[in-house]
Specification:
The chain is mainly β. The protein is 9% helix and 37% strand. The chain has helices at residues 3-21, 174-184, 333-340, 400-406, 533-538, 570-574, and strands at 28-42, 45-52, 61-64, 68-75, 83-86, 112-118, 124-130, 140-146, 160-169, 193-196, 213-216, 221-228, 234-239, 244-249, 252-259, 262-264, 269-275, 282-290, 305-311, 361-375, 380-388, 391-393, 437-439, 442-445, 449-457, 467-471, 476-483, 502-503, 505-508, 512-520, 524-530, 541-546. α4 (400-406) links the parallel β22 (391-393) and β23. Residues 36-147, 162-314, 415-549 form the Plastocyanin-like domain.
């Protein structure tokens, strides 16, 4: 890139920041994210990964409730990237949601883009991550949102805090492996280990010296900010001989949950109180996968990721830390379901809930695995697909937001169905011959529409498992869930409309259903999808377009200057499946 273009991009970003300062109510923060390919040695092997500012996890963002920040992302990697601010509602500002081909096109190598991130009602822990291909395996970090200045937590102030980020490790060039899998229709890569704050822990080979250690003092209460940044895994989490108290999730406070273990889905965050009241010593903090898919499958990631909680003081160092005996086993569905049923909002005068009661839009969404056949002039490719109401999402040639804002036709259609094409025994073993349709279909909502969505898990292609569904631009209330097939007559009678938990990500149970409600009060274009990246990549996702309200304050803001340009498209790449160019392994095959 020439110097004049660089200066133009910088001045455009600076103009955006200055222009918006007058609208900011809280403090303003500025960050620089520099994306580069770095060498990391894990499990006795050195791999090259894209990282922010040279580290995995990346920088921690710290703000107060109601603040605004500007993040200038410089892409010095080999392929296009976007950054998503997971759980940040971004009122009226979908332009900085950072979703590949939904709200923007990728930040191409050698260029930069400044995100304006507007914090509003969020308070607690969120996170940021790449939202393009599987780049988030290394491009992610925590967001700490402290109470607004002059306020405090709804629980006694902790003595200190610790950020714990759970992640994934893959062998080889992950970007190239994902591209080749999509290109040829084979299975997507599986992780070889999980990590805690970037390290797999000393139960893994070549990892003893780099195991993450957390030094604590006896008799203190710590606030643990837990993030599941794993690409495609629900994870059990526990601390040996220490109880945990969950006090928040997805930057919303909850009624305290006293527990000996945690289940956290990819995309979720939790705020947890831990009191160091055990004998001075070393204790493992461990995480392992909860495998909710085919029970008979044994070939999944069995690695136990560990870090060490280490008490300060004088005592005999143990030969080995104590391992948490209360960490559930890999296929413990009962423990998984039991934990997720505990979540409730505070629902008091300081932290009220606003559950919509008069629903104006109802959607029943089946989540399925299946196959799909791609055709072009020279080739036919049969591949795995995932779908919502039998529609498998296909990224368009330009981002949906710009097409909507500029009224560009032919980019998407507005006929995403409110119901599946047919009804049958969704959780059984016998199914009708249903076809998965590849499409860019969105659902249009009026401003302030009161929406109820019921997600129904299915057993198609033995794909039954947890599906952590994530909604951009909004939070939602989990009003009900249960096993089996949803009954729209009897099941609503058990809905919790008093103190349901408010979240941005929550799992649909294995062979069960999940009911959520929200008000579409944020104009813009907002992605919703399964946060298992395997399923999202295969198409288990769609888009809401929330129309403007009647005033400027209820309408989408104008786009920022220097939006990244679209230089490639999913559909164009589908037309070129005659073989990988081995000399260009860092170039994306699919967006």
């Amino acid at each position: 890139m020439n110097q004049k273009k660089k200066e133009s991009l910088f001045l455009g970003s600076l103009f955006l920041a200055v222009q918006c300062l007058c609208m900011v109510k809280g403090d303003v923060h500025f960050y620089d994210f520099v994306l580069t390919e770095e060498n990391f040695t894990r499990l006795c092997s050195t791999e090259t990964m894209l990282a922010v500012n040279g580290s995995i996890p990346g920088p921690v963002i710290r703000v107060h409730k109601g603040d605004t920040m500007y993040v200038n992302v410089h892409n010095q990697g080999y392929y296009g990237v976007t950054i998503h601010w997971h759980g940040v509602k971004q009122p009226r500002n979908p332009w900085s949601d950072g979703t590949n081909y939904i709200t923007q096109c990728p930040i191409e190598p050698g260029s930069n883009f400044t995100y304006e991130v507007i914090f509003s009602t969020e308070e607690g822990t969120l996170w940021w991550h790449a939202h393009s291909d599987w780049t988030r395996v290394g491009v992610h970090g925590a967001i700490v949102i402290l109470p607004a200045i002059g306020t405090t937590y709804p629980f006694p102030k902790p003595d200190d805090e610790e950020i714990i980020i759970l992640g994934s490790l893959y062998s080889g060039n992950l970007k190239s492996s994902v591209d080749e899998a999509l290109h040829s229709g084979i299975d997507l890569p599986h992780s070889v280990a999980y990590t805690i704050n970037g390290e797999p822990g000393d139960l893994c080979p070549c990892s003893k010296e780099t195991t993450y250690r957390w030094m604590v003092e006896y008799g203190k209460t710590y606030l643990v900010r837990l993030v599941n940044a794993a690409v495609s895994a629900d994870l059990f989490f526990a601390v040996a001989q220490h109880n945990l108290t969950v006090v928040g999730t997805d930057a919303h406070y909850t009624k305290p949950i006293s527990t000996s273990y945690i289940l956290i889905s990819p995309g979720q965050t939790m705020d947890i109180l831990l009191t160091t009241n055990q004998s001075l010593g070393h204790y493992y903090i461990a995480a392992r996968q909860f495998w909710s898919h085919e029970v008979g499958v044994a070939k999944f990631d069995l690695v136990n990721a560990t870090m060490i909680l280490q008490y300060k003081g004088n005592y005999t160092i143990p030969s080995s830390p104590t391992f948490p005996s209360n960490l559930p086993l890999y296929k413990d569905l009962r423990s998984a379901i039991t934990f997720t049923k505990h979540f409730k909002s505070l629902a008091n005068k300081d932290y009220p809930v606003y559950v919509p009661l008069n629903i104006t839009t109802r959607m029943f969404i089946t989540l399925s695995m299946g196959g799909i056949i791609y055709h072009n002039l020279t080739s036919t490719l049969e591949a795995m697909a995932a779908s919502a109401n039998n529609i498998s999402w296909s990224n368009p040639t330009t981002d949906v937001l710009l097409a909507y804002y500029r009224n560009i036709s032919g980019v998407y259609s507005t006929d995403f169905p409110d119901q599946p094409p047919s009804y049958f025994n969704f959780t059984g073993d016998d199914f009708p011959n249903t076809l998965t349709e590849l499409g860019t279909k969105v659902k249009v909502l009026n401003y302030n529409e009161a929406v109820e969505m019921v997600f129904q898990g299915t057993n198609l292609v033995q794909g039954a498992g947890f599906h952590p569904m994530h909604l951009h631009g909004h939070s939602f209330y989990v009003v009900g869930s249960g096993p089996g097939i949803y009954d729209n007559v009897t099941d609503p009678k058990s809905f919790n409309l008093v103190d349901p938990v408010e979240v941005n990500t929550f799992a649909v149970p294995k062979q069960g259903w999940l009911a959520i409600r929200f008000v579409a009060n944020n104009p813009g274009v907002w992605f919703w999808h399964c946060h298992m990246d395997r399923h999202m990549t295969w198409g288990m996702s769609s888009v809401f377009i929330v129309k403007n309200g009647d005033t400027t304050e209820t309408s989408i803001r104008k786009p920022p200057p220097q939006l990244p340009l679209c230089e490639a498209s999913f559909r164009l790449r589908l037309e070129n499946i005659d073989g990988l160019d081995q000399g260009k392994e860092n170039e994306p095959i699919f967006s």
